[in-house]
Amino acid sequence: MSTTVATEVPRTTHAAALALEYGDRVLLGTTRDVHRAVASRMFRPLRLIGGRLPQAVHDTVSEAVYTGLSAALRGGGGALRGLAGRGMGAPIEDGAGGRRLRAITNGLIGADLHDAGDPSAITMAVRRDDRDVPVTTAALAAAFPSPSGHLVVFLHGLVESDESWSRETQDARGGYPERVEDEVGASALLLRYNSGLHVSDNGVELARLVDELVEAWPVRVTRVDLVGHSMGGLVARAATHHALAQGLAWPGLVRQVVCLGTPHLGANLEKVAHLGGQALGLVPESAPFQRILTTRSPGIVDLRHGYVTRDEWDGQDLTAKWGLDRRAVAPLAHADYHFVAGTLAASPWHPLSLLLGDLLVDVSSAHGRPRRGDPVVPHATTSHVGSAGHFALLDHPQVGDWLVAWLRPRAVAALPAAPTHRPGGTS
Length: 427
Known about the structure:
The protein has 14 helices and eight strands. The radius of gyration is 24 Å and the shape is globular. It starts with 11 loop residues before the first helix and ends in a 20-residue tail after the last helix. Helix 6 runs parallel beside helix 14 (397-407) and helix 9 crosses helix 11. With 427 residues, it is of the alpha/beta class. The chain folds into two domains: 12-116, no CATH class; 125-267 and 324-414, 3-Layer(aba) Sandwich (Rossmann fold).
């Protein structure tokens, strides 16, 4: 993993340059290759009459057109980057729309941005009031004027950001972070990270960041809990795994790990995209479209497999793997794990729920319980929320109630009964 870090302020001109560059690389390149394949098939019968001359003329003209368009797109991208370097263009971070666009871009091509040192690449950080908070005691004390020794770290999912937890809520008590601070008395730390990187790489960064947070926090840290939505749950598991391997102390402070709609066994939508890409490659005319489906970040590919460690992907051709070769990653034996699954229908046994789960992740994957083999975390409790799509799990009143109960430092007997159950039970 490259350690290149961009220090230049990302601007709208950077975003426009990226659009032109990827338009050239993916869209124009795909169009050109489809044109070639179709032309080759159409000119094949004509070779019996006019030989290869008609196709040669056609190919020369079309290649000249595509070369010109490509040069224009690349030239435009370079010009825009030049303007950005001179400070032209509004900072992307100044508006919610720009921040959202940056999060999506990082989810799709974040590894490329990171490796190139592009200013648009996101660096993992604690966020407060839409700004990064430096991990120093002074900066943390200013951002969190009433710090608690109980830290609850919130980890968003793919193409999401810290602001994903602050959607318009129908719960008058507020979203999860607000309820955690008001009802649990903990400090809610919302993190933002480059979701296009490998889950394991983000796990390494999270392990380092939490270690620094515990050291720099204005008061003594007595407890750390992790709450992850979708990919965020995998990043949480990756971080504890790496921290233990490195001998860091903070995993000993963890008491609760909550995963909401996390594809522990892989995500169905990514598997469908993988199969679709393979199918497109079977026909010359559709093969170029495979580029669009296969231009996916390592983070997205990790979601197909449910990978959380570097050993699972390093040196492997992930495009040829389905994802059934995950390695066992030991959970924290002293911590409670809570895996929450949503389904589009009210019942988890409804055909729609069985087929699509929450649209992106099915129930067995979210619960980390394969039909064959050992569960991801044998001692995890699993819960189900009906009539809730994948993103509804970011802000659901019932999940909020469970979250508050799980994170409160009180007896397990006080947890709400219904649909939470121990392994082997039913939702």
